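We both want to read discrete structure tokens more fluently, so let's practise on a single case. Would you write everything just below, so we can both look at the same thing?
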Amino acid sequence: MPYIGCTKKLLDELKIKEPADHSDFRGLRGWHGNTFRLYRSKSVLLVNDETRFAVFIPRLVKKDFANFDRIFRERFKEALEWAGADESQIAKALLQCGGCSYGKTHNRSVLGTMNDMKQAIEHILWYKFGRLPKGPEEIRYMTMLLNETPYQGKDLGEYVFAAVNMPKMLAEL
């Protein structure tokens, strides 16, 4: 069961009154999430703690936050397909991603990476499209650009490429 360390804004959108406590953030269990506005529309960015693998979800409305577990699983599956994971790896990953628990953020390094990703999203959307991505190909472009960018954090010790590290992690499942 993944634990998503949410910013206060995301906890409010999900209507979580009492955040869950969790201690195991390894592998697919540790995620961070943030919500922000892009072109007058709500978007969510989820980042895996260990690999910095990003799942970008634009154009969310109120009812989407009520079914956020399902939306996360669908978008995560798409992102894994785009990263080149095979069907058995995706199936194993989705088995571990059933029923998310939501709590407070727990890793400032991941929050810093998320802020970098958010700025990249804003700039790329402005210069490339001038609007929110409309179809799956444009969302794929944004997500893969985030996952093919190298990131570094104090907890990582070296640069990581999410598009490389996530399939490696899935192969070890």
User: Anything to note?
Assistant: The two ends are 14 Å apart (CA to CA). The chain has seven helices and seven strands. The longest strand covers residues 30-38.
